[in-house]
Design brief:
Helices cover 22% and strands 39% of the residues. The protein is an alpha+beta fold and 452 residues long.
């Protein structure tokens, strides 16, 4: 099944909107093509070539002087099943607790139409298998066992509502990852881009093998406060919590955000710039949100100063009376969310950042990062894969077995350098950020994980 076109998506969505008796109706149609190969030392262990269409119907019904709202979804094109889904949404809305106020659905809007990368959509199993074969061969030569995933994903999405809003776009993502493991060490690398033709698969394989080789026989290290250089993956594991915990208008309104009472203040070092930008080539995304509003490029930090949050239509009063286009599909228990974070690049290479550290640590990845306290963004997590001592500006012996616990607000205040190369990275939970390496004046490591 090819991806749904603009005309096909609009035709189906309009048909369902026309059949709905609700006071307001919104239909989202998303078609997806997802192909992946998972592999380990024995070769490919799982593969899939999945194509599907998902239809979501959101309705509002008037009841007892209020409005009931609900959403129902189906993964089918069968008209009778879609009509049942509409009926289910109406039943749920009738049973819903009527809120005091609901902002009407948005009317007609102009949204730039995005495209999926043709190479990512067409990328076959055979090409993925060739890359896996290269990873297996190089890992065997180097004496390590590999494991990872090669995936391409493409989708189209249309949103149509009963007030005349109609938007359509397409998106794609390609990624290759590898963990190279030995008896006492491991190395991780990946490469992510909208266009599979831009992936550096060979480079990812070599980086993982190099880190695995130079991190053999790591030594335990005492907990304490260390000056650190975080590679892009380690940096992303921290920075994504800015989105999870604080850059939402809802969190600001509820005063659970670290920005509560601090908007406009310098909360990070001058070197820190952060935007949410769905049009940025290093971290592109959908150009409209879950309400069909165009996504704005939103400056969140500029020279360390916190400038504000992202919003949806319900929280537009916190962003000059307009939505910034960051709503999740509605109705939702979550507020708006930045989904295309990009850190401003600096002028220093990774090697130059390391060279400035007399004694400290270089960390490639942090794992199982969780939030302990949102107002100061106190986070905790553990070192994973490669980490090394830095001595007199050079990488020295590998280390392992540390858990950090620290405030991201405090850490960013003491940011001492920003790398020049933007890398798109993800984390354990969800989301990705384009970030360079970061040089932190200190990060507090509170316990050892060895033997745990």
């Amino acid at each position: 099944m090819p991806l749904f076109s603009r005309d096909e998506s609009f035709a189906l969505a309009r048909e369902l909107v026309a059949k709905s008796p609700a006071a307001e109706t919104e239909v989202t149609v998303e078609s997806t093509v997802d192909r992946f190969v998972r592999y380990a030392g024995v070769g490919p262990t799982q593969s899939a070539d999945r194509e599907r269409v998902d239809v979501a119907i959101r309705v509002r019904v008037e009841k007892n002087g209020g409005v009931g709202e609900a959403r129902a979804e189906a993964a089918t094109l069968e008209r009778s099943a879609l009509e049942r889904t509409l009926g289910h949404a109406l039943e749920l809305a009738e049973a819903a607790v009527a809120p005091l106020q609901l902002i009407p659905l948005g009317g007609p809007v102009e949204v730039e139409e995005s495209c999926a990368a043709p190479a990512s959509l067409a990328h076959p199993f055979e090409a993925k298998a060739d890359a896996v074969a290269r990873a297996l061969a190089r890992s065997r030569e180097a004496g390590f066992a590999p494991a990872g995933l090669f995936e391409t994903w493409s989708a189209t999405r249309a949103l149509v509502n009963s007030r005349g809003r109609e938007v359509f776009g397409a998106n794609s993502r390609a990624s290759f990852s590898i963990v190279a493991s030995g008896p006492t060490s491991s190395g991780f690398a990946d490469t992510i881009d909208a266009d599979v033709a831009n992936l550096d698969v060979a480079g990812a394989i070599e980086r993982a093998l190099e880190d695995a080789a130079r991190s053999r026989d790591p030594s335990p290290i005492e907990p304490g406060e260390y000056e650190v250089v975080l590679g892009p993956h380690a940096a992303s594991a921290l920075l994504l919590f800015l989105a999870y915990e604080g850059l939402s208008a809802r969190a600001l309104e509820e005063r659970t955000s670290f920005l509560a009472g601090r908007v406009g203040e310098p909360l990070a070092a001058d070197a820190f710039d952060l935007v949410d930008d769905a049009r940025h080539p290093k971290n592109p995304g959908w150009l409209f949100d879950g309400e069909g509003t165009a996504r704005e490029r939103r400056i969140l930090f500029e020279r360390g100063r916190a400038l504000g949050v992202v919003s949806d239509r319900a929280h537009a009063h916190l962003t000059d009376g307009r939505s910034t286009g960051h709503a999740l599909p509605q109705p939702s228990n979550s507020g708006p969310l930045p989904q295309n974070l990009v850190v401003g690049a600096g002028v220093s290479s990774l090697e130059e950042l390391i060279a400035r550290v007399e004694r400290g640590l270089f960390i490639t990845q942090l794992h199982y990062v969780n939030s302990i306290e949102p107002r100061e963004l106190v986070l905790t997590g553990v070192i994973r894969h490669g980490a090394w001592r830095i001595e007199q500006g050079r990488l020295a012996a590998p280390v392992s077995g540390l858990r950090f616990t620290d405030s991201l607000v405090r850490v960013l205040k003491d940011l001492r350098g920003v790398g020049s190369e933007l890398v798109r990275c993800g984390a354990l939970f969800d989301g990705e950020v384009a970030t360079p390496a970061l040089h932190l004046g200190s990060l507090r490591f509170t316990s050892s994980t060895r033997g745990a």
